[in-house]
Amino acid sequence: MKLGQNVIALSALLLPGALAWGTTNLVKDDTTAFFQRILQNDTEHYLAGVATWADSIRYTKWGRFSKNFHFIDAKDTPPTYCGVDFERDCKEDGCVVSSIQNYTSQLLDTKLWPSRRNQAAKFVIHFVGDIHQPLHVENVAYGGNGIHVKWESSELNLHHVWDTSIAEKMLGGIHRKPYVAGFAWAANLTYQIKSGKYEAASKFWNDGLSFNDPIQTAMGWANESNAIVCTHVLPEGPEAIIGQELAGDYYEKAAPVIELQVAKAGYRLAAWLDLIADKASGTAESVGEL
Ligand SMILES: *[C@@H]1O[C@H](CO)[C@@H](O)[C@H](O)[C@H]1NC(C)=O
Ligand SMILES: *[C@@H]1O[C@H](CO)[C@@H](O)[C@H](O)[C@H]1NC(C)=O
Ligand SMILES: *[C@@H]1O[C@H](CO)[C@@H](O)[C@H](O)[C@H]1NC(C)=O
Ligand SMILES: *[C@@H]1O[C@H](CO)[C@@H](O)[C@H](O)[C@H]1NC(C)=O
């Protein structure tokens, strides 16, 4: 959307990076091998290194076709009514929900050139992150890009606050390199999922996941993100938030929500990539061909 249209701020690496590192920690060994092969990178950076690729191409001439794939514009009226509807809200040329399906199926299509499957992998990894961001599942003011707010006294738009500023502040400001901060954050979240505060809850995070129905699965994720728009993003509506300072009380309420969304996204992406790798290994030549 508007911010970052020409350049991706370094800090835009933080959320996608943390998510990718979290996933790296959670996938099965066979899945690692499969995606290292598809992405042609046999280091531990194979996911984190491509997590923002989709953002880096969306405003280029070549990549323009993908600009609408990062979101779905839920035409609801927060805070009184939240809700996302595939028929109503997914644009004719695609949205984040249809794109997760589209690129999952391309990843598994052994007739496609390896370069196409490589791109499909990079899109899936990025879009599972985007769909967990509340303002990527909201129509109001272009997903909050058109709402000006204050953040530690400087002026920002609401979309940027949710994509970047809240996570940055949680991790102690912008002093650390985002790639490194994302790595440390993911290690913490992985610990919380395996044996910490998310251990019990995470057992239910993949309820409703159906590999045979990517649209329904992704709509479940979208619905959950969109509900946050009513509870935490615009709890008093779009007019009331204009010009407000959000780095105080608003931030305190938003931070745990962002953390939970990043944890869920990493966990769900790991499960999704495991299913893709399982399915691909059923067709023996698919890996061998690359
Ligand atoms: C793997 O990815 C990392 C991170 O993007 C990059 O620095 C490294 O050069 C890549 N390695 C190969 C073999 O492509
Ligand atoms: C599916 O992906 C292809 C290749 O990137 C793209 O050209 C096409 O527009 C996508 N279709 C939909 C409905 O998103
Ligand atoms: C994880 O982060 C929390 C704060 O969110 C902190 O209290 C905790 O000590 C960290 N745990 C580890 C293992 O780093
Ligand atoms: C959508 O989210 C709301 C609020 O979290 C929940 O009550 C509802 O059951 C969800 N609907 C679907 C179809 O997932």
TrEMBL record:
Organism (species) = Daldinia eschscholtzii
Q: Which CDD domains match?
A: S1-P1_nuclease (cd11010)
Which keywords does the record carry? Disulfide bond, Endonuclease, Glycoprotein, Hydrolase, Metal-binding, Nuclease, Signal
Q: What is this protein called?
A: Nuclease S1
> What residue range is the signal peptide?
1-20
Q: List GO BP terms, alphabetically.
A: DNA catabolic process
What family does this chain come from, according to its entry? Belongs to the nuclease type I family.
- GO MF terms held by the record: endonuclease activity; hydrolase activity, acting on ester bonds; metal ion binding; nucleic acid binding
Output the superkingdom of the source species.
Eukaryota
Concerning InterPro entries, the annotation shows: PLipase_C/P1_nuclease_dom_sf (IPR008947), S1/P1nuclease (IPR003154)
